[in-house]
Amino acid sequence: AFVVTENCIKCKFTDCVDVCPVDCFHQGPNFLVIDPDECIDCTLCEPECPANAIFAEDEVPEGQEQFIQLNAELSKLWPVITEVTKPLPDADDWNGKPGKLELLEK
Ligand code: SF4
Ligand code: F3S
Predict the structure, then answer these.
(1) In this structure, is residue 37 part of a structural domain?
(2) Is residue 50 part of a domain?
(3) Has this prediction a pTM greater than 0.80?
(4) Can you give the residue range of the structural domain that contains 26?
(5) What band does 47 get if pLDDT is binned at 50, 70 and 90?
(6) Whose atoms come closest to the Cα of 22: which ligand?
(7) Which of 26, 51, 90, 106 is geometrically suited to a Cys-Cys bond with 75, CB 3.0 to 4.6 A?
(8) Does 74 sit in the ligand 2 pocket, CB within 6 Å?
(9) Residues in contact with 91: Cβ distance below 8 Å, sequence separation at least 6, in sequence order
(10) Which CATH number do you get for residue 36?
(11) Structural domain includes residue 44
């Protein structure tokens, strides 16, 4: 499955949800996740993310492996999102900032 990683936090651009053919993105307060049981590995979402936050499971950057589990867990708790919405305020400022995992709201 594909995995949403740290740089989505506090950005949530949502371009990714527009292209997913199986509607497997789920939305929390300041982060999106992919349901690994629904993702069909079509690869369409990866280039759409302005924050480059989406990776194939076996290409998740070093140090971000915990996001594989977070996507699996949180996708069971959060509602599906299928429509593009406005990014979070200051998304452009947060894009690329390190250490955002501790800011993840569940
Ligand atoms: Fe959806 Fe395809 Fe991305 Fe999986 S790889 S989340 S199926 S757009
Ligand atoms: Fe997040 Fe990128 Fe989608 S910032 S909401 S994974 S377009």
Answers:
(1) yes
(2) yes
(3) yes
(4) 2-81
(5) very high
(6) 1
(7) 26
(8) no
(9) 10, 11, 12, 13, 51
(10) 3.30.70.20
(11) yes
In a domain, 9, yes or no: yes
13 lines ligand 1 (CB under 6 A): no
Ligand closest to CA 53: 2
Mean of per-residue pLDDT scores for the chain? 98
What is the atom index within ligand 2 of the atom nearest the CA of 4?
A: 6
Determine the residue type at 32: L
The proportion of the chain whose per-residue pLDDT surpasses 70, expressed as a percent, equals 100
pLDDT at residue 63, as a whole number: 97
User: How many structural domains are present in the chain?
Assistant: 1
CA of 73 to the centre of ligand 2 (A): 18
Which residue's CA is the nearest one to ligand 1's atom 8? Answer: 20
Tokens of residue 44, six digits:
């369409």
Is 90 exposed, middle or buried (CB count within 10 Å of its CB: 0-12, 13-18, 19+)? exposed
ipTM over 0.95: yes
Q: How far is the CA of 55 from the centre of ligand 1 (A)?
A: 10
